[in-house]
Design a protein that fits this description.
There is one protein chain. By secondary structure, this protein is an all-alpha fold. It has four helices and no strands. The longest helix is centred in the C-terminal third of the chain and has 25 residues. It holds the Pfam family DUF465.
């Protein structure tokens, strides 16, 4: 288990500028971006036992983060 947050700028360093552009110009992308960060912060708090959760909830949050990351990547790669 990793206690390092999965920040999008670290996950997709080649798309940092494009992420900024899309956050400003695309409301749907901005919403997905914020949802990702909310889930990511919740996972990090759970992993560091600041706000522990059960295994099922943790798995659900991780699946949600992965789905959001896939959608964000799809939008980034299409916009590039």
């Amino acid at each position: 288990m990793s206690n390092t947050p999965h920040e999008l700028a670290e996950e997709f360093p080649e798309y940092v500028a494009k992420m900024h552009d899309l956050k400003v110009s695309d409301a749907h992308f901005a919403k997905l971006f914020e949802e990702y960060h909310e889930v990511n912060r919740a996972i990090h708090r759970a992993e560091t036992n600041i706000e522990p959760v059960g295994d099922v909830h943790m798995e659900t949050m991780r699946k949600t983060r992965m789905a959001l990351k896939d959608k964000i990547y799809g939008m980034l790669s299409k916009a590039a």
